[in-house]
Amino acid sequence: MKNIFKILSLCLLSMGIFSCENNEIKTVMSNQGESPVLSASKTSYVLTALSANDSTVAFSWNRSNYGFQAAVRYTLQIAKAGTSFATPKEITLGNTLQLKYTTADFNQLAIIQGLKPNNLGQLEVRVKSYISDAVADIYSNTVMLSVTPYLVVINYPSLWVAGDFQGWNPATAPKISSRNSNGIYEGYVNIVGGTRQFKYTSQPDWNGTSYGWASSTSTGSDVTGTFSSSGGNLFVPEDGFYLLKGNTNNNTWSATKTTWGIIGDATANGWSDDVKMTYDATKNVWKITTTLKAGALKFRANGAWAINMGDTGSDLSLEYDGDNIIIPANLAGTRTITLDLKAGNYTYTIE
To answer: pTM (2 decimals)?
Structure first.
């Protein structure tokens, strides 16, 4: 009988010790440890294209301490201030303790996170420390950065569109541009008033080559034809916002009247119909204030897919047939969308 009691006592003692050991392990595993301390090279940046390739922004932090040896991995998180890191840019870095950005790369990141070019905005930055799913992530202090990004504007080779709608003044005329520098030009021009006649000029005065009418065929408000350096005036049949093209390799030109809208499951009409935008002649942009949902959208002309633009690269720069523009949950709600189609630099903002 005494032996039975001894055995039972030993079992209970063993269970107690095992239980204590388990509790000790759980306590260690739930220990939050010491967080990394994050610092930035500066906390205020006015970014410019002049330093695009310079290493401008740098972050560094010390190692986390979990109270035991572990293979720690770090992720840098960058988000627009006030979003509580809901949809941050995450950079997985392994065991690295620093990260540097060129001006151009950090400028693109700031714009993707919702900062408006040429306006002061704030970004929040922190480091997430991770070892396994069994241990809670540790976060560093949050560093607030004041950042003024810049709009990337490229001056492509261009032709100036001078006509009676703007006083026949090449110096102040809108441009069409050759994004591939191959003699093929295009651009969007609002032609309203007068006879709607114009010429293409190779420089912002009348001292270069002027391209005028040689032949044309009109279909409704659209025109296709040829031009020559000794021709008369080009023309469009009615007022409107035109996609103008010119090819100095084969001397052809065209004019396609456009109106613009947005389409996608982030919009009220889904992918079945456009939500129409309104042209602002003063600022030469298309705008709409509308309610967005989490989802995606694209810009397209004339309610058809022949001319549509998306954002490949998520950099607020538009490309024909580009990727869908993703609207995350934190951008849902009433927003003003602006489409800017100036001189080969096709851009948009969502505010």
So the answer is: 0.69
Correct CATH for 260-350 of 2.40.30, 3.90.550, 2.60.40, 1.10.10: 2.60.40
CATH class of 158-258: mainly beta
Cβ(188)–Cβ(210) below 8 Å:
no
| Helices of type H across 143-223 | none
Distance, in Å, from the CA atom of 77 to the CA atom of 132, rounded to the nearest integer, reads: 18
Fold of 38-148: Immunoglobulin-like (2.60.40)
DSSP 349: E
Residues 6+ apart with CB under 8 A from 164: 193, 194, 195, 196, 197, 198
Whole-number Å distance between alpha carbons of 271 and 256: 24
List the domain boundaries for the chain: 38-148, 158-258, 260-350
Closest CA to 312 of 286, 346, 351: 346
CB 271 within 8 A of CB 264: yes
CA distance 282 to 210: 28
The Cα diameter of the chain in Å comes to: 122
Q: What are phi and psi of 73, to 5 degrees?
A: -120, 145
Helices (H), the chain: 2-30, 103-112
Q: Dump pLDDT digits (tens) for 86-134.
A: 889 999 999 999 999 999 999 988 987 888 888 899 999 999 999 998 8
